[in-house]
Specification:
Blueprint lengths: L18 H11 L5 E4 L7 H6 L16 E5 L2 E11 L3 E9 L8
Antiparallel strand pairs: 1-2, 2-3, 3-4
Amino acid sequence: MAPQQANFPPAGEEESVAPQDREELKAIFNVPVNVQVVLGSTTMPVSQLLKLGRGAVVELNRKVGEAVDVYVNDRLIARGEVVIVDEGNLGVTMTEIVKAELGLI
């Protein structure tokens, strides 16, 4: 089954927020957050790490085509696919929103 595209409003457009709540939330709209996209990970001893040089390949625990993890402030919030944007820059298309445990999100 192909992943479904997540639909997000364009930046600056909030949906499902009542007008009176929108004014209260404006204070947090410009708060910066740390967004990380994790392609994969691996574990290795320090001795092996010190032997790595230019051109070394580090094998990750993900397969080609597998979804990448999207973290906001160190919390997993979504999974997505790596895409190429304007002139070769990389981006991520979010394909799945991850529901937080205990209903925190």
